[in-house]
């Protein structure tokens, strides 16, 4: 039997305090991921607004709201934004694929209040990257837990049409800063924006981030793919996540060399950083 209860108060608690049978209050959270999920009855219509959020100690929980309710509220939810959430239901998360390791889920409804706020001290924890070596070697891998991975693209194959599922698939491999590789693939509409960057000669190295990717076992190999609607794929983005990856890779390549100044940010702003980065990464394909 699923336990649920209503939260309605002006006192804020952490996500870890939300346990069945206990009265909780409001939450202050940062939105990690926000996406629309199609209706179960009409695939061409939005059925719900889905969010993954974290609190000030970086605990996570998944939240869902009927899309018709969301439209009536006329609020704007932005990924990375901070929000106060009041009056909601908490129940067991019965989803097959988990976006968090929290067994509970928030259900937002017409009485729910969502308001933005500002707090420069509130942490930003948009990703929880898994080690590519651990994934490839099946170390603590849960096929039903969606994960984040980031790496340099070292090879890719042209998309092929898979008749069984009536959509396209594109396979590629990524490597971490230590050269550990992991197979990945994308389905459907996720392919074209990524392929356009893969095919550009002026985009080297290519760094790709798969957020909330799905682990799949194909024969004896473990790969990561997208799952529709939830997964977010970004390539060569100028965010701190990508800059930190490049910074770590360059530092590892340079080792103790101090005669060169590492500036990964320049790579994203213009082409001047390309020749320097390519010198250490080499051409991936």
From TrEMBL:
Pfam families, per the entry = DUF223
Entry-linked SUPFAM superfamilies: Nucleic acid-binding proteins
Q: Which CDD domains match?
A: RPA1_DBD_A_like, RPA1_DBD_B_like
- The source's superkingdom equals Eukaryota
> Which ranges carry the Replication protein A 70 kDa DNA-binding subunit B/D first OB fold domain?
13-114
* Name of protein: Replication protein A 70 kDa DNA-binding subunit B/D first OB fold domain-containing protein
Origin species, per record, is Castilleja foliolosa
What lineage, starting at the top, does this entry show? Eukaryota, Viridiplantae, Streptophyta, Embryophyta, Tracheophyta
């Amino acid at each position: 039997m699923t336990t649920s209860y209503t939260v309605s108060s002006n006192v804020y608690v952490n996500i870890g305090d939300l346990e069945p049978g206990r009265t909780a209050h409001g939450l202050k959270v940062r939105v990690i991921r926000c996406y629309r999920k199609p209706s179960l009855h009409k695939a061409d219509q939005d059925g719900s607004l889905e969010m993954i959020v974290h609190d000030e100690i970086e605990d996570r929980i998944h939240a869902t709201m009927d899309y018709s309710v969301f439209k009536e509220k006329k609020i704007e939810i932005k990924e990375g934004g901070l929000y106060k959430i009041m009056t909601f239901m908490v129940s067991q998360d019965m989803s097959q694929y988990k976006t968090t390791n929290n067994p509970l889920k928030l259900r937002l409804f017409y009485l729910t209040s969502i308001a933005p706020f500002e707090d420069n001290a509130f942490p930003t924890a948009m990703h929880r990257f898994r080690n590519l070596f651990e994934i490839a070697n099946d170390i603590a891998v849960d096929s039903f837990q969606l994960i984040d991975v980031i790496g340099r693209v070292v090879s890719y194959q042209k998309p092929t049409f898979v008749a069984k599922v009536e959509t396209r698939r594109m396979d590629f491999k990524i490597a971490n800063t230590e050269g550990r590789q992991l197979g990945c693939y994308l389905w459907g509409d996720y392919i074209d924006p990524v392929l356009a960057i893969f095919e550009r000669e002026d985009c080297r190295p290519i760094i790709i981030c798969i957020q909330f990717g799905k682990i799949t076992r194909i024969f004896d190999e473990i790969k990561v793919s997208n799952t529709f609607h939830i997964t977010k794929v970004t390539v060569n983005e100028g965010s701190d996540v990508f800059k930190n990856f490049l910074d770590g890779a360059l530092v590892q390549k340079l080792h103790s060399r101090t005669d060169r100044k590492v500036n990964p940010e320049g790579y994203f702003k213009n082409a001047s950083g390309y020749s320097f980065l390519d010198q250490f990464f080499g051409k991936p394909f």
